[in-house]
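2024-03-11 09:14:02 DEBUG pipeline.ingest accepted 1 chain
2024-03-11 09:14:02 DEBUG pipeline.ingest length=217
2024-03-11 09:14:03 DEBUG pipeline.predict start
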Amino acid sequence: MNLRRLKYFVKIVDIGSLTQAAQALYIAQPALSQQLATLEAEVGQQLLVRTQRGVTPTEAGKALYRHAQIILRQCDQALSDLASAGQVSVGMAPGTAAVTLSLPLLRRVHASHPGILLYLNENYGTTLSELIMNGRMDMAVLYGDKAVHGLEFMPLAKEELYLVGPGIEPRPGESIRLADLADVQFLLPRPYNIVRKLVNEAFMRAGLTPHIIAEVE
C-alpha cells in the first residue's frame, strides 16, 4: 500500500466518480481503475461499489477512507515540519559583533522560525571564512572590507577604532595622527586578527612601524 494509491482512493470517494476523479488527477481512467484494483488486492476486500450514479464506498472502503485521510494529513504535516526544521550555523567575530548581535539574533530566529536550531560559533574571521568555504557554516559576521574569493559579502555596519591607554589625552571627535603614536607602546592582537591587520596597514601607508611590546591571543 503506497501513498499515491491512498490519494487516488480518497479523491475517488470525495468526488464519487471514477471518470471525474481521473480528470481531477490528470490520469487516464483505465490507469486509475488499475490503481484501485491493485489497492483492493492489497487489502483483500472490495472498497467501492459501482452504480449508475458513480461509485460509493463499501464498509471496508469507509474504514480505509477514514484511515487514509489521517495518514495523508500526517504525511503533509511531516513534510511541512521537515521543511521548517533544521540547523543554521552563524559565525560571529569576537568583540562587538558577537556581543551586540548574538542575543537579538537568537530572539528573532526563535520568534520567527521556532523550528530552526541556531548554532553560533564565535571565532576569528579567517577560521570562519574557511568554515563557510568548505560548507561547514552557513554565514558569518566578519570584520574588514576585503572580499574573499568564492564568498558573497554584504556590509552591515561601520565601526571606528579607538586608542585606549594610560597617559593618552582624550580628544573627543578628533582623529589621532599616526605620527604622534611613533613612540607609543602597543598591546595588540596576533597578526591574523583583523584589528592588527588594519593597524599594520595604516602604519605601513604612513611609512611608520608600530612599537608592539606584546600580543594578545
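2024-03-11 09:14:41 DEBUG pipeline.report The mean pLDDT is 85.
2024-03-11 09:14:41 DEBUG pipeline.predict end
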